[in-house]
Amino acid sequence: MESCSAMAKINLNQPILSPSPLPRNTISNLLHPSPLFFSDRKPFPSFFLKLQKQSPLADNYIEATPSIKCHATLPGIYSEASTLADIDWDNLGFGLIPTDYMYMMKCARGEGFSKGELKRYGNIEISPAAGVLNYGQGLFEGLKAYRTRDGNIVLFRPNENALRMRAGAERMCMPAPTVDQFLETVKETVLANERWIPPAGKGSLYVRPLLMGSGSVLGIAPAPEYTFLIYVSPVGNYFKEGLSPINLVIENDFHRASPGGTGGVKTIGNYAAVLKAHTAAKAKGYSDVLYLDCVHKKYLEEVSSCNVFVVKGNTICTPAIKGTILPGITRKSIIDIARGLGFEVLEQLVSVDELLNADEVFCTGTAVVVSPVGSITYMDERTAFGDGKVGRVSQQLYTALTSLQMGLSEDQKGWIVKLK
Ligand SMILES: *Cc1c(COP(=O)(O)O)cnc(C)c1O
């Protein structure tokens, strides 16, 4: 066994630790559920560990990770679970940092998910005719695990993500994990990657569940097989501005969603559809794009990946959820928190005029948290808010939400799920 001397890189010629692949749908598995699934135990009890030779593709992935201490030894995995990964925790952005494990579970069309497994993080194999590749039958979710100052690991309202994935799956003709399966598999994936959860206050572990039609189709139809996959990445701020105000541009020609479409679910195609406007806006120096309703081109919808709020006096308005806007969990939480703080919160049509006459504007989302808006450009005219400073209401709501998420204030609403 290698010793845990400083900064040993993974030896790519060595076999690495990997959970044993468990046969699916066997009678014995149904009678004796895998200890890797729905258990409160630490991942990888030793009797389930097996040395497995890696594929060359997986090797490339491991190679791309930052240097890792003491990786390739059997006892290493236990000591590492509590040791932090060796990366620069002070400069996390919102980019992918590959971690140790991902979760995968498959099922056939018309059936439910029953059993999955943690795997070494790496490339997946998929049919060229997969429904997700050909017809965009796919959904994603996004949530964060935090390390609190008193040493806990927590999730914020993960049951809401589970329910939203189920609603989206129904819209996209896919089977979805149950709420319990979603919660257990997220928990298991987070704990298996524990050393990648940033220290308290430095960021969070972004958890990305995917649901996709992985079976082959040629004619347009729901795929015959589905894959649920969870991977994670440590993240810092989404916008390079951090809590400093962002600059948005209102898009007049391209639309994100239309009535009767899929704007209200986190389906993958919604994001490919905004790339053109998003890329053009970024090239002009804007942080992101604010979309209008596609019928009147007059009412606000949302930003590429976050919801929008407009503050005037003691009133906070946000566009109502009517199928074209993604029902954000941060949005829902901020509405609750703001009402608790004495604000009047209205979910209704919000016009561009109201927006431009607001005292403050901010965006909400898991990735962006609460991001104050410093300026909005509409028809080439720029309207600034709050002299480049963070607005009072945005700051107040940001503090209230993040204190709750990071365990600094009491969780009276039962939004925090403790993993450890
Ligand atoms: C994910 C997402 C949001 C924010 O939802 P949260 O649950 O708050 O993270 C808002 N708008 C769009 C388009 C999204 O994809």
From TrEMBL:
Keywords: Amino-acid biosynthesis, Aminotransferase, Branched-chain amino acid biosynthesis, Pyridoxal phosphate, Transferase. GO terms for biological process: amino acid biosynthetic process; branched-chain amino acid biosynthetic process. Transmembrane segments: none annotated. It catalyses: L-isoleucine + 2-oxoglutarate = (S)-3-methyl-2-oxopentanoate + L-glutamate; L-leucine + 2-oxoglutarate = 4-methyl-2-oxopentanoate + L-glutamate; L-valine + 2-oxoglutarate = 3-methyl-2-oxobutanoate + L-glutamate. It comes from Carnegiea gigantea. GO terms for molecular function: branched-chain-amino-acid transaminase activity. PROSITE patterns: AA_TRANSFER_CLASS_4. GO terms for cellular component: chloroplast. Its cofactor is pyridoxal 5'-phosphate. Belongs to the class-IV pyridoxal-phosphate-dependent aminotransferase family. The modification N6-(pyridoxal phosphate)lysine is found at residue 266. This is Branched-chain-amino-acid aminotransferase. PANTHER family: AMINO ACID AMINOTRANSFERASE (PTHR42825), BRANCHED-CHAIN-AMINO-ACID AMINOTRANSFERASE 3, CHLOROPLASTIC-RELATED (PTHR42825:SF2). It comes from the Eukaryota. InterPro entries: Aminotrans_IV, Aminotrans_IV_CS, Aminotransferase-like, B_amino_transII, BCAT-like_C, BCAT-like_N, BCAT_family. CDD domains: BCAT_beta_family (cd01557). Its EC number is 2.6.1.42. Pfam families: Aminotran_4.
